[in-house]
Amino acid sequence: MTKSAVMTAALAAGAVLLLSALGAGMFVESGLYNIGADDHHTKPVLALITQLRDRSIESRLSSIKPQLGATPGMIEAGAKHYASLCVGCHLAPDATKSDLRTGLYPHPPNLAREDIQESRRAFWVIKHGIKMSAMPAWGKTLDDAAIWDVVAFVRKMPGMSEQDYQQLLQAP
Questions:
Q1: Residue ranges per structural domain of the chain
Q2: Angstrom distance (rounded) from CA 87 to CA 29
Q3: Which of 34, 51, 91, 134 is a good FRET partner for 161, with 20 to 30 A between their CA atoms?
Q4: Are 165 and 79 in contact (CB under 8 A)?
């Protein structure tokens, strides 16, 4: 490739990048994209956000040591934290809706019905939250031991009856 061809290719690449940045800036400035929680993302935007979230979390898990075995005390303490901090969005056993959850988008997972596969991922999400999803960073409020208690409870909750859940909440 000649020096002239390299220079032309570099200028063309620069022009494409500049036009892309200008186009993106004009799109953002226009306000065309509805960011309201009552209007769902387009499929490409949702796919991009999902990929960004999943890869971001995955790349940070190696620094977290998994908690070994959940004790009944951890599950009980986690149930109490969950009842005061999480149930409005993620629901209790046998619940199907809440007033708060109805207006959230993206819709939070119903943790009473979903198996939490990876304890380190659950710990990270509870501790750090998820931007633009209404998932707060509970690491500002709870210490790591309390977050592991919540993880222990959430992993135990799928299939739990409302009666079992209430017994955990009423334990001394």
A1: 1-32, 56-170
A2: 37
A3: 134
A4: yes
Query: What is the total residue count of the chain?
Result: 172
pLDDT in tens, the chain (172 residues): 788 888 898 889 999 999 999 998 998 899 988 888 888 888 999 999 999 999 999 999 999 998 888 999 999 999 999 999 999 999 999 898 999 998 898 889 999 998 877 999 999 999 999 998 899 999 999 999 999 999 999 999 998 999 999 999 998 8
Q: Could you confirm whether domain 56-170 is CATH 1.20.1260.10?
A: no
The SS3 of residue 26 is helix
CB 155 within 8 A of CB 122: yes
Taking alpha carbons only, the member of 15, 146, 118, 20 closest to residue 61 is: 118
Neighbours of 41 (CB within 10 A): 16
- What are 29's two structure tokens? 């400035």
Which of 157, 137, 150 shows the shortest CA–CA distance to 57?
A: 137
The structure tokens listed for 132 are 């633009």
